[in-house]
Design brief:
Blueprint lengths: L3 E4 L6 H9 L3 E4 L7 H14 L7 E5 L6 H12 L5 E5 L4 E3 L47
Length: 144
Amino acid sequence: APDVIVGDLDSVAEHVLADFSAHNTNIIRVANQNTTDLEKALDFVQLLHDTGRACDRDVLVMGGLGGSLGHVLANVNTCLLFPRLRVLLVSERNVAFALPPGEHEVRGRPGAFCGLFPFAGPALLTTRGLKYNLDRESPPLSFG
C-alpha cells in the first residue's frame, strides 16, 4: 500500500479510501479545484523535500502519459512547474521528463527512440550519440 494518497479524491469511492486507511496509508484531501491532482501531489512532495523529510527529488508518475492528449500535455506542463523535482511521466512504452535550462546528460539504450520538445521556449541544443545529432542549431529548436 502507498504511504500517502494526495488529491481532491472526488472520483475515488469511499470504500477504496477506507481500505487504504486500514493499511496505514495517510489520506490527504486537498479541496482546491484550481489545481490538478498531480499538482497537489507534487506540492506535497516538494514540501517534504524542502523540509528535509524526503531526500529524493525523483518522482515517478505511473500512467502519466496515458489517456487523452489534453491530460498528457497538462501533465507535461505540470512537470515544468516543479523544476526542483525530477518528475518522470511513465507509460508502458515511454518515459518523459522536463529538463531545466542548463547542461544535462541523458543516457538511453542503443537503438531507443528519443524526442526533444522545448515546451518552455526556444532552445539551443547539442546532442551526441543520436542517429541525427544537433549542434547548437540555428534557429533554435522550438515548439509551436
